[in-house]
Amino acid sequence: xxxxxxxxxxxxxxxxxxxxxxxxxxxxxxxxxxxxxxxxxxxxxxxxxxxxxxxxxxxxxxxxxxxxxxxxxxxxxxxxxxxxxxxxxxxxxxxxxxxxxxxxxxxxxxxxxxxxxxxxxxxxxxxxxxxxxxxxxxxxxxxxxxxxxxxxxxxxxxxxxxxxxxxxxxxxxxxxxxxxxxxxxxxxxxxxxxxxxxxxxxxxxxxxxxxxxxxxxxxxxxxxxxxxxxxxxxxxxxxxxxxxxxxxxxxxxxxxxxxxxxxxxxxxxxxxxxxxxxxxxxxxxxxxxxxxxxxxxxxxxxxxxxxxxxxxxxxxxxxxxxxxxxxxxxxxxxxxxxxxxxxxxxxxxxxxxxxxxxxxxxxxxxxxxxxxxxxxxxxxxxxxxxxxxxxxxxxxxxxxxxxxxxxxxxxxx
Amino acid sequence: xxxxxxxxxxxxxxxxxxxxxxxxxxxxxxxxxxxxxxxxxxxxxxxxxxxxxxxxxxxxxxxxxxxxxxxxxxxxxxxxxxxxxxxxxxxxxxxxxxxxxxxxxxxxxxxxxxxxxxxxxxxxxxxxxxxxxxxxxxxxxxxxxxxxxxxxxxxxxxxxxxxxxxxxxxxxxxxxxxxxxxxxxxxxxxxxxxxxxxxxxxxxxxxxxxxxxxxxxxxxxxxxxxxxxxxxxxxxxxxxxxxxxxxxxxxxxxxxxxxxxxxxxxxxxxxxxxxxxxxxxxxxxxxxxxxxxxxxxxxxxxxxxxxxxxxxxxxxxxxxxxxxxxxxxxxxxxxxxxxxxxxxxxxxxxxxxxxxxxxxxxxxxxxxxxxxxxxxxxxxxxxxxxxxxxxxxxxxxxxxxxxxxxxxxxxxxxxxxxxxxxxxxxx
Lengths: 413, 427
Known about the structure:
The structure holds two protein chains of two kinds.
Chain A: H1 19-22, H2 24-57, H3 87-120, H4 125-139, H5 143-157, E1 179-181, E2 184-187, E3 189-192, H6 200-232, H7 239-257, E4 259-262, E5 265-267, E6 270-272, E7 275-277, H8 279-306, H9 309-317, H10 322-352, H11 364-376, H12 379-408
Antiparallel strand pairs in A: 1-2, 2-7, 3-4, 5-6
Helix pairs in contact in A: 3-4, 3-8, 3-10, 3-11, 4-8, 5-8, 6-7, 8-10, 9-10, 10-12, 11-12
Chain B: H1 23-31, H2 36-61, H3 70-77, H4 86-90, H5 92-97, H6 107-124, H7 133-148, H8 153-173, H9 177-202, H10 219-246, H11 250-265, H12 268-278, H13 291-317, H14 320-328, H15 333-363, H16 375-385, H17 393-422
């Protein structure tokens, strides 16, 4: 018999209703249609409730309140702001404060995490155990409690400014430059004396530009050194050259601008001059870094341990010394494992910085989502704007992360 | 001539190894003092430990446990170093139950906690008899009734609805999964609808258990309740979202992706703001959904997005052969997922799910920001603001930290044990 019926031949009979569920040609469409209907009903139901509730409360959705004067003060700010500024200005102050504390905490958390993660792999038993204790203690206690603990240290344990007064004061300034008080930490602040460079903002831009130039120049030097190495096999010593490129131009520029430091001084009831860093900022910064540092330490340890021992042994067989093995073989591979979770921890820091509201640091959650929301009663608008801000940040970071992941992806045959 | 040759006929006794190569000396040399930098590091570490212990131990052991205010405590201490732990004994009930839960009803949450141990045991340890899962199934309703009290009809109706849904699902799902699922949901709603009328009709003036309002819950009890409820609700939701994200249907996949990425992109605080100031606008005008329920909804949505990502990782880690093997056996999608894919994917995901659960439990402290009086809210609000205990920071914050540490560390140790237990490959 050569006649065979094909199993895969579609059923050509009359269309029946049950085929909507049983026939693979229609099933996925049916399910999606049901899902679309359910979704539309849910949105209609919620939207209808919203409109009805807004009508009974006599409210409408409008963002006009952003232009009204905010009427509250923010002590910790990076841009000009006073109580007559608008709500949107207050939100911008908050956004900058969020970015400030997140950036600071990301830097220090990375330092804590890398140090603790590497020390945890130390062959010194006591040190590695101490680091495990650090990691376990900080990972298992809520970050909110850490923020409150450190904030309490900053406000309840530090001496009041008047403790620095008198011939035999109870408290003294560290190195005669830093004052740790319960109102915040006062540090020396830089200013420029040269009359030709009167605008401090432009001056800092100029400094950054010179630093960028230094970066470019040092990369050229490194490129040149690699070229020489490939030609002759010997890498020329460049470190003093690189160091000079970094230090000399910026040093000269600052000298010309007449950089000087203003030391905080006790005047009246408080310190004046220099830079004041509020206790809330320090509490948030330190708590976020030490808490996230514990998580990063685990990633660093896992990343280093993920590199198989054969790699180290192979590097040894090629005659590389331990330091060069670490720098040239282990770390480049470990970073591939470490960096993606590291970036998501940076994202966590940014999101956790919203806990600022618990200690009164004026981040965007405390200004836009806190005082502005309470004063204007525009709950829906404020919360939506707040979410939009955090979403933007996290989307930007994840775009960056995807870009990084693509660039370090293992190039296999 | 005398024979001078000599052959030793017995073994020499073994000599003891050098003192530097055995026992504690050897251990110290290899582990603490192997090189000069290492020795310095060890001494520095010992110094740090000394500093910490010298600060903490006198405070801990010189503590006072029986006074009724900070000033009394200072009198007893007379300038000596010591903690005022009497705040813990005097305010114990507030720390654990909040300041509004009726004192004479404390036995109810206590009993619920004890029963929780029995309900959770068969889920956590699979060696226990499977029949115990029946108790786990009815536990949520018992716990609800114990904590909130009120007419017994409410939890009974809820239970009957779920039971009816389960029976309908069992009856139809073998032939058609979608029919079973939809029928189950429909059955539940019908039963709840009928039950709602019956409960209203039969509601008596004096229910067996005095009702307690949600806003009266507080203290560590609130943290535990939020943690347990939200974790257990968000695991099924997370599985559904993960499967949805893997789906080949563009609409379902799109909805799941948008939901997950949105939730993961915003901080929990903003979602709690939604719960406290915004969510009420989305309910029907005459409905009063209390804050506890709104917070449970938002935290559950929050953690389900994270759990979905963990499970998606587990699904992606399964070799493609498993999916193909299920297809070649002729299993349809629900069967393949239930019998082949999910058991393996969930096993891989356990450490991640536990991490999310620990993180979620820690995050329940955030409700203090929207003025709910959980453990942290109680400490910062009523207790530290009271005249008697204004200024007792370290005892209270240390106690809170200790409670959370014990629970979270316990959960992570359990997860490590479970991972070893479930390891089926031979190493």
